């Protein structure tokens, strides 16, 4: 499914509905740093998210060191943010909540 690029107003509203995601400086992405108890938890989180992302055909940019996972979500197709990013963000929050 192709989602439209969100307006600044729509981004502000969507940001208020997810947990501690930040708008990137160029405003084309949202970012969040997740921290878990250990590497196994962090990697388990990434594994679960990867399966969801593949189903959505919407993939995170992320960086993992030990128990930390830095995530950046953006929609390459529109070079900005779409509802896909916020849907994936909310899902990642839910997956993390079962582990933190
Ligand atoms: C062909 C395939 O559907 C596209 O390349 C998908 C794959 N995953 C994607 N992931 C993200 N984050 N943005 C995209 O625009 C995107 N496009």
TrEMBL record:
- Per the UniProt entry, the Enzyme Commission number(s) are 4.2.1.96
Reactions catalysed according to its record? (4aS,6R)-4a-hydroxy-L-erythro-5,6,7,8-tetrahydrobiopterin = (6R)-L-erythro-6,7-dihydrobiopterin + H2O
Which keywords fit this entry according to its UniProt record? Lyase
InterPro entries for this protein? PCD_sf, Pterin_deHydtase
Which GO molecular function entries does the Swiss-Prot or TrEMBL record give? 4-alpha-hydroxytetrahydrobiopterin dehydratase activity
Top class in the EC scheme: lyase
Any one biological process term the GO annotation gives:
tetrahydrobiopterin biosynthetic process
Record-linked Pfam families: Pterin_4a
The domain of life is: Bacteria
> What NCBIfam families would the database entry show?
PRK00823.1-3 (NF002018)
Entry similarity comment: Belongs to the pterin-4-alpha-carbinolamine dehydratase family.
Q: What is this protein called?
A: Putative pterin-4-alpha-carbinolamine dehydratase
């Amino acid at each position: 499914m192709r989602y439209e690029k969100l307006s600044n107003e729509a981004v502000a509203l969507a940001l208020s509905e997810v947990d501690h995601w930040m708008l990137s400086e160029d405003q084309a992405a949202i970012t969040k740093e997740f921290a878990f108890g250990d590497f196994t938890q962090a990697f388990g989180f990434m594994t679960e998210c990867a399966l969801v992302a593949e189903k959505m055909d919407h993939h995170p940019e992320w960086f993992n060191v030990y128990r930390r996972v830095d995530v950046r979500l953006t929609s390459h197709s529109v070079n900005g943010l779409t509802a896909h990013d916020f849907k994936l963000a909310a899902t990642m929050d839910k997956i993390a909540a079962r582990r933190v």
